[in-house]
Design brief:
Layout lengths: L5 H8 L6 H9 L1 H23 L7 H10 L4 H5 L14 H58 L2 E10 L7 E8 L5 E8 L7 E7 L6 E7 L3 E5 L11 E7 L11 E6 L1 E2 L1
Antiparallel strand pairs: 1-2, 1-8, 1-9, 2-3, 3-6, 4-5, 4-7, 7-8
Helix pairs in contact: 1-3, 2-3, 3-6, 4-6
The structure holds zinc ion.
Zinc ion (ZN) binds next to helix 3.
């Protein structure tokens, strides 16, 4: 397996669960594991920054590094003129010549010491770029999550077919899951029959060994919460029954329509 995709690493760092395959790779590959660890750290820093909403001023040497990187000149940044060239500050021809004459010596002396800061500056630049992109990802993913969470998601649906005693009936059932994980079934029954007694909506296991009542269907359309302990992969049949007003809470045995849920 090749190294993990950078986008995937970012999403995993942001909390998206890794697949078994990705987890196995992270366990085996130090390079990807290290990259993930760095991303996770950046996410923590990014999140705490977003939460606190109060940016701390970076240390002077960080600004100096940025100024240097942007070619502003570290000394100019800290001077009272704010780094803007002034007439008085411009080197005269004579000064330039002296500077050029001195340059080779100065370069030789500074070269070994300059190598380390250069590496550090590159590191700072990478970290800042990373932090900026992670902040963007956090914002985008946060917005996307917010949008997604406010909309119920359809997780299953069924076409409800008529039983022989109710040849003209038909219906549909749609199961949606809300942001908080609660599920509900929207049932739509189309039959022209006069209703004496009432209609009741049920979830039934595939082998009909167990069933649960969701409630009474008033009119042709109703929305019914699915009890939390009901596993819809077991209770796959949606049933609407005709019930006499006899006070018996069990299924009358007179089903109008029934259909099996297909999962999205
Ligand atoms: Zn790898």
């Amino acid at each position: 397996m090749p190294h993990l995709d950078a986008d995937r690493l970012s999403l995993i760092a942001l909390g998206e669960p890794a697949t078994d395959e990705e987890r196995a790779h992270l366990d085996a590959c130090d390079e990807c594991a290290l990259e993930l660890a760095e991303l996770e750290y950046t996410v923590i820093v990014g999140r705490s920054t977003v939460t606190v909403g109060d940016l701390e001023a970076p240390p002077e040497r960080v600004w100096a590094g940025i100024a240097d990187e942007l070619g502003l000149g570290a000394t100019g940044m800290t001077s009272t003129t704010g780094g803007m060239p002034t007439a008085g500050g411009m080197p005269t021809a004579g000064e330039t010549e002296r500077a050029e004459a001195a340059a080779p010596v100065a370069a030789d002396e500074e070269a070994p010491a300059a190598a380390a800061p250069a590496r550090r500056r590159r590191g700072i630049r990478v970290v800042f770029a990373l932090a900026a992109s992670i902040a963007l990802i956090v914002a985008v993913v946060g917005t996307w999550t917010l949008v997604r969470e406010t909309q119920p998601v359809e997780i299953a649906a069924a076409t409800l077919d008529a039983f022989p005693d109710h040849p003209d009936a038909s219906g549909t059932a749609v199961v949606v899951e809300k942001a908080d994980g609660a599920r509900q079934v929207e049932v739509d029954l189309d039959d022209g029959e006069p209703s004496d007694g009432f209609r009741e909506v049920w979830l039934i296991t595939e082998d009909a060994s167990a069933l649960v009542s969701l409630g009474v269907l008033e009119g042709s359309t109703g929305v019914f919460p699915v009890p939390d302990d009901i596993d819809l992969s077991e209770y796959v049949l949606v049933d609407v029954s005709q019930e006499p007003a006899d006070g018996d809470p069990t299924h009358s045995g007179d089903s109008i329509v029934r259909g099996e849920l297909g999962f999205a």
